[in-house]
Amino acid sequence: MKSDVLIIGAGGAGLVAALHAKEAGADVTVLTKEYPTRSQTCMAQGGMNAVLPNSERDSIEAHIANTLKSAQGEADEEAVRFMCSQAPNALAWLDSIGVCFSRTQEGAIAQRTLGGASAPRACYAQDYTGLKILHTLYDQCVKMGIESESEKIFLSLLKDADGAVCGAEILDLKSGNIEHYLAKAVIIATGGYSRIYGANSTNSTASTGDGIAIARRAGAKLIDMEFVQFHPTGLKNSAILISESARGEGGYLLNSRGERFTDELQPRDALSRAIHKEIQKGEEIFLDIRHLGEAFIDKELPQERKLAKLYENVDPAHELMPIRPVAHYTMGGIAVDHTSQTTLEGLFACGECANHRVHGANRLGGNSLLEIVVFGKEAGINAAKYAKEHDFTLPLQQEKHLVKEIDSFTNEIDFYKKHQELGDLLYQKLGIMRKRSELEELQAFVEDVFQELPRMGLSDTSQVYNTNKKEFLEFINMLEVSRIVIDAALKREQSCGAHYMIEEEE
Ligand SMILES: Cc1cc2nc3c(=O)[nH]c(=O)nc-3n(C[C@H](O)[C@H](O)[C@H](O)COP(=O)(O)OP(=O)(O)OC[C@H]3O[C@@H](n4cnc5c(N)ncnc54)[C@H](O)[C@@H]3O)c2cc1C
Q1: Catalytic annotation on 217?
Q2: Which of 39, 135, 367 to mutate to test the pocket of ligand 1 (most atoms within 8 A of CB)?
Q3: Exposure winner among 256, 303, 311, 499, fewest CB in 10 A?
Q4: Distance, CA 401 to ligand 1 centroid (Å)?
């Protein structure tokens, strides 16, 4: 199997890249370990930031300023300028392919305020924004004849005789066979790594950092891995997200005494810390949207109501929602330049797995959907251009790695339990507030788990549709990513945005 551009990941970033690479004349193949319409992008609720043309209450300069402020000096101003100034085009493109954004009574695209924004800027489709975007992108891919293959698990990158990336080794879940997909250019669009925190995350179970671990093994540079965003309002028991749109539409945060204790629309890092401090004092924290009224909630926040009823057994039209901050978005990722090319020849990256330096130490709500559309396009166009100008040279170089040895591991220790333990420890010690001594304890724990890996083999040894094998491969990737995040956190001694260090006695 050989294409011009191979895209691994069929979330918003991967599908946007596919459409633009195809439009640029490339022959494109898209692979995903799930189904394209199930990718995590479909969980995005609150909206996508874009200043609408001729806006009287907002400006692109304000969008840039808000993004840079939230990033706390860790973003690249040029990249932020590019993203924010492209936002109106990105929105117009989505509108033109049929994304059904909510409208005002006058027929304009409706906008709401998310945390850290100086004006209502997030364009939304009720609270189903990501779902509507992803499904429309998928429809468009089908229309353009882009081939997308499901249940294909990315294992490693292939390199040509000169060391340029020229494809991927894949485990086909259905047959259990190992396959090689060759390409002149490869784009990794495999999403973030919040699931290293196990059940303490709002993310899809697929957000296991596979692409990041694999790119690193192949020698790609990663940056800012210590920056993990904790969303202030995960449901207390299930960690299911109650979107920022609930606060954007006027929701309050209350402590056990029913008092508001903070500004609900400050950036996520500061708000999560404010909630965390209250919880440490023994308070229970609640999100209150009762005063918005049932009719409004059903019109603008229908998914939030359904999620709270389903996962927390509370009806937010009439009851308080118990919440806690949980791991939500990973700012760190594969380093890319302004053309979305990684430090490896022939390898591009976009979406949450990549770091285009637009979020810095703390992403602004609504800027991730924007990033995947703006930089997904850049990755697609630039990979197609690269593929026109390059072809690979044989023979291929094969990578040696642990994942190839797992069939010989013994099944003495349950890796699912280890993941749960790892996730809880990361949440406690690599969470909203971090201490050096606790990071060192974590580091020792992770190294011990690495030692134990050969005794954590598979309980299911069947060849066909072996989800146990897929999940073990994901666990190994999460372990590797956890090690990298802990090391990065230890190296950055000063607090910055989502990376908040406290003194030992605090
Ligand atoms: C609950 C929730 C709500 C959110 N709300 C908003 C919002 O309102 N606004 C906003 O801007 N952002 C929001 N975000 C963030 C935003 O949704 C994500 O950052 C964005 O969708 C990531 O898109 P992506 O294409 O990079 O990755 P994903 O959508 O995660 O797609 C990754 C793809 O890679 C595939 N993949 C992964 N590993 C492998 C592998 N080993 N082999 C093959 N395929 C693989 C997956 O199957 C999937 O197809 C939200 C996030 C969550 C969790």
Answers
A1: no
A2: 39
A3: 256
A4: 26
What is the best residue among 34, 40, 241 to mutate for testing ligand 1's pocket, by most ligand atoms within 8 Å of CB?
A: 40
pTM here is 0.96
CATH classification for the domain delimited by 402-491, as one of 1.20.58.100, 1.10.600.10, 2.40.340.10, 3.30.70.270: 1.20.58.100
**Centre of ligand 1 from the C-alpha of residue 188, in Å:** 12
56 Cα distance to chain centroid? 32
Domain boundaries, the chain: 2-226+331-389, 231-325, 402-491
Q: Could you give the CA distance from residue 220 to residue 233 in angstroms, rounded to a whole number?
A: 34
Nearest CA to ligand 1 atom 37: 190
Closest CA to ligand 1's atom 38: 190
Q: Which helix (H) or strand (E) holds 341?
A: none
Task: Tell whether domain 231-325 is in CATH 1.20.1640.10.
Answer: no
Q: How far apart are CA 358 and CA 447, in angstroms?
A: 32
Q: Which residues contact 377 (CB under 8 A, 6 or more apart)?
A: 16, 17, 20, 90
Q: What is the mean pLDDT of each run of 10 residues along the chain (506 residues)?
A: 94 98 98 92 94 93 97 97 98 97 94 92 94 97 95 96 95 95 97 98 96 97 98 96 91 96 91 95 96 95 94 97 97 97 98 98 96 98 97 80 80 96 97 97 98 94 94 97 98 95 79
CATH architecture, range 2-226+331-389:
3-Layer(bba) Sandwich (3.50)
Q: Which atom of ligand 1 is nearest to the CA of 244?
A: 8
- Name the active-site residue from 112, 247, 268, 483: 268
